[in-house]
User: Which sequence fits this backbone?
């Protein structure tokens, strides 16, 4: 039975995981900032929204201070994974690690820093980070998880961790093969995140509208069709139809909360003038398309536009405030 | 000789002020809806700074009924205001010819719905209004004009206007077929302008990024294919113009970027929307231009339909 979990990275997803798990097992958190760790140690971590709870945890910004653990969950952004994984290189040789990063390739990054068995995961839950020790649980959708084939992770480890997440109040779904689900989310994310990042629009109904010939839904559909073609060429039978995921997501936003629409993480990055995860999401799809000989002109255009947008903050150009 | 500039913003002001230097030969009028700009022009003259140093005497009006009949009209509004502007002023040109110097395609068709003799025009000079009555010219260049085929002005009338503009300081060529110049600029603009707006980058910065530069070339290729299918011979390679502009107008903020920063409607319909429309008519696919239209319209929607956060 898993007793000790380390969460690496306490952004929105890391905080949601740490807060919930902190009510059912021993949780330690590795933060980037010492001040963040101090606040968590002093006040605990509050979760509001779908669930209301406060968890007591041990937090530190120094990897050497992190206590022994059985499961490590890397919840940092894909861009920070390399640095986070290197902080744990050589640590916790008996632990199982899980990645929840967007896009493709997180497991490969992690595997370069240790011999740990790896669980792949994609998460659909979302939240709003109100402060270092308060996160709002927004979408209580599931985290899908499965053994990463390259480390021959036992499926029993996946089942055990999924059961732990469920016992803490989170939604989790273990799968023997995560690739179909991972690709479904990759294709969905690539289209929705890049369009949101370039237009400044949250994920509203316009993303699924195809009435007029220049409606935004046509572009989103074209992007998704390109992704599906790449997945097919890669031999992946998708777990969910990404276009149906898009239609469902905006329908949920429109009907359940008329004044609510999800703000994809790349839109938030653009608004904060941070580098986005486009290289791991749309960029991953473009690279896979090139590798497999599948043309992806629209995805390539979106990738280039987001890169250009990022460059407007690092070059002395003119920044557009979204 | 009386000439009225319809829409006396940045580009209109470049034409009006330069023509006004032909004192005693040309009587320059201007119609614009911005009262502060019109009042400043009437009080102090119309001043150009930057690449030009001109102070022109121009009769500006916000009410077209106060403007006398004219020999020529020069329409320089943003493309989305063409139909309204020509509806307000068509009566001034009952015996005159009207020339569009606007961005994109489709403006001449709208003017021809109200006016007998129409001139197709394309201009490269650009600038921005820095204060009421003052325009900074930040790009110099040529203007090409020619008869608009469905309702043409006579070639002599076109040549007379080109001569006036050239002597006034706006180098202008009269061409029997000005479509090549117009499509060259259309393709140049449609490939670069919205990318500036979507990324926030100036033209020179955009061209320095290999990824963005390749996207520009992809858009250029679609536009060139449409022009080819329409039987239009481009007068230069738009891709080379893009590189040339990166050198001479490195810091230029595309007008669509200026629009997006100010949250004004853009000219996307006349630019990329025009490439898409003509492409459909002649059966040439334009998926990248379609994507750009959808993205810019998405940007415009983000200012008005952004839901409140909970």
Assistant:
């Amino acid at each position: 039975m898993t007793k000790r979990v380390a969460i690496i990275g306490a952004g929105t997803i890391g905080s949601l995981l740490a807060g919930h798990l902190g009510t059912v097992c021993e949780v330690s958190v590795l933060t980037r900032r010492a001040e963040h760790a101090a606040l968590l140690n002093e006040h605990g971590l509050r979760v509001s929204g779908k669930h209301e709870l406060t968890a007591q945890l041990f937090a530190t910004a120094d990897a050497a201070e992190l206590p022994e653990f059985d499961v490590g969950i890397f919840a940092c952004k894909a861009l920070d994974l390399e640095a986070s994984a290197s902080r744990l290189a050589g640590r916790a040789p008996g632990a199982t690690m899980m990645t929840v990063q967007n896009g493709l390739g997180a497991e490969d990054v992690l595997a370069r820093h240790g011999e740990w068995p790896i669980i792949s995961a994609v998460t659909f839950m979302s939240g709003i980070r109100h402060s270092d020790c308060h996160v709002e649980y927004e979408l209580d959708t599931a985290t899908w998880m499965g053994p990463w084939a390259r480390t021959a992770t036992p499926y029993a480890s996946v089942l055990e961790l999924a059961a732990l997440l469920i016992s803490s109040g989170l939604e989790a779904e273990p799968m023997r093969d995560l690739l179909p689900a991972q690709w479904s989310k990759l294709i969905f994310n690539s289209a929705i995140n890049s369009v949101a990042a370039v237009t400044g629009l949250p994920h509203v109904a316009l993303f699924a509208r195809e009435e007029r010939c220049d409606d935004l839904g046509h572009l989103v559909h074209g992007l998704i069709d390109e992704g599906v073609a790449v997945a097919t060429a890669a031999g992946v039978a998708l777990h969910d139809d990404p276009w149906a995921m898009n239609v469902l997501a905006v329908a949920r936003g429109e009907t359940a909360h008329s004044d609510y629409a999800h703000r994809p993480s790349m839109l938030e990055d653009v608004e904060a003038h941070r580098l986005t995860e486009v290289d791991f999401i749309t960029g991953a799809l473009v690279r896979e398309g090139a590798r497999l000989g599948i043309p992806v002109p629209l995805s390539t255009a979106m990738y280039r536009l987001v890169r250009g947008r990022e460059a407007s903050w690092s070059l002395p150009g003119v920044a557009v405030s979204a | 000789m009386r000439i009225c500039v319809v829409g006396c913003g940045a580009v209109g002001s470049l034409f009006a002020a330069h023509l006004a230097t032909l004192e005693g030969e040309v009587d320059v009028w201007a119609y614009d809806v911005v009262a502060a700009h019109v009042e400043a022009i009437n009080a102090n003259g119309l001043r150009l700074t930057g690449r030009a140093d001109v102070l022109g005497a121009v009769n500006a009006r916000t009410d077209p009924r106060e403007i006398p009949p004219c020999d020529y009209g020069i329409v320089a509004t943003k493309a989305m205001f063409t139909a309204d502007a020509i509806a307000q002023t068509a009566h001034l040109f009952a015996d005159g010819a009207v020339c569009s110097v606007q961005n994109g395609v489709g403006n001449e068709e709208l003017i021809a719905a109200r006016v007998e003799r129409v001139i197709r025009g394309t201009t490269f000079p650009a600038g921005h209004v820095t204060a009421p009555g003052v325009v900074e010219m930040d790009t110099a260049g040529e203007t090409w004009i020619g008869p608009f085929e469905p309702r043409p002005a006579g070639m002599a009338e076109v040549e007379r206007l080109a001569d006036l503009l050239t002597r006034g300081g706006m180098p202008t060529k009269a061409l029997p077929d000005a479509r090549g110049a117009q499509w060259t600029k259309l393709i140049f603009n449609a490939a670069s302008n919205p990318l500036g707006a979507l990324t926030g980058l100036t033209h020179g910065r955009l061209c320095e990024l290999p990824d963005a530069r390749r996207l520009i070339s992809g858009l250029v290729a679609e536009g060139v294919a449409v022009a080819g299918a329409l039987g239009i011979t481009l007068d230069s390679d738009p891709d080379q113009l893009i590189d040339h502009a990166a050198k001479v107008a490195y810091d230029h903020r595309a007008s669509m970027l200026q629009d997006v920063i100010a949250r004004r409607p853009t000219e996307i319909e006349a630019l990329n929307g025009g490439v898409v429309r003509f492409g459909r008519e002649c059966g040439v696919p334009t998926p990248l231009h379609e994507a750009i239209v959808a993205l810019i319209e998405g940007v415009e929607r983000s200012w008005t339909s952004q839901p409140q956060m909970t």
Chain B has a mean pLDDT of 94.
